[in-house]
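Predict both folds.
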Amino acid sequence: SQGGPHAKQQEQEQEQEAREGGTRADGGTGGQSDAETMAANMFGAGPGTPVNLTLQQAKDAVDEMSACLNKPENVALLDQAKATAGEDAMQYMIVVLPVACNILAPILQKYGFSPDQGGAMMMLQALKQHDADDEIRAKAKEMKSKFIPEQLAAMLAMSMGMGN
């Protein structure tokens, strides 16, 4: 193998650090902005098996996620995370999005997505397939607004490929 065991260990440490929200040990970003690199690291930019939702499943999922995000205990968790993040987009990705994903994990799993940020991103992509449906589009937008402030939505959407 190239580089021997030390290179393998260094590569594993870099991967672990990336999962934990750090920068790569070599300080490089591969030509991406910090936000793009962070988004790629946090949201499992690797291959995944896409899950397709029927229109009814998409409506049910959005309703369940909205109800979950509206529970008082979850509103309190998100409010605390948002207060911690302030208006810094990077802090949102590091602090708020993991809280939101944690809250939504059971629903993500129910619909066949992994209970993490990668699964949440795949769920949003699956919902986007039903963007032509006014109800889905409105509810998805309302749901995202629970944890992504309007002033950061465009920047986060761009860096994570979420659309508006």
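Second protein follows, with its predicted structure tokens after the sequence.
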Amino acid sequence: MCTEGFQYRALFEYKKERDEDINLLPGDVLTVGKSVLVTANYQEGDEKNPKGWLNGVNERSKDKGDFPGTYVEFVGPVRFVTPSPKPRPRPVPPTPGASSAPTNVPPGQELTELLTLPDQAPQIVMKLIEALEKKGAESEILYRPPPDSPSGSELKEALEIDMAAVDIDQ
């Protein structure tokens, strides 16, 4: 997909101050998508003298992020191909004000990176969903124990009392 944008040349060195910033060296060429500049306050020609922060790609380092518009000069319009974004599962942040249980996710990792399901999990989940839809949550078939484990009624009772205490890997 072709996108319209603008190219800028860095006039000054800029060392990033935040994680979302990018470093600039004099002479670096930066590409900024037109959609980044078009805001409620945008007027035709504003791209030639940017005043605030811009978000773009440093063509030398291939870093993407924010940089001060006052550190660059306008080079001209450009058309470029944007790569398709990689699908990345991202957990939804908790609703502000709602209580949530703390997670022990190491900094820099997402919960989805830590969770891996066995290959057969989707089949099992689909069977459980089908059973719930057909028979309801009270169906004894949902509580059928595997061999060498507590009986169905014992398992159901244990799940109702304290679900976290039940060892389902028995």
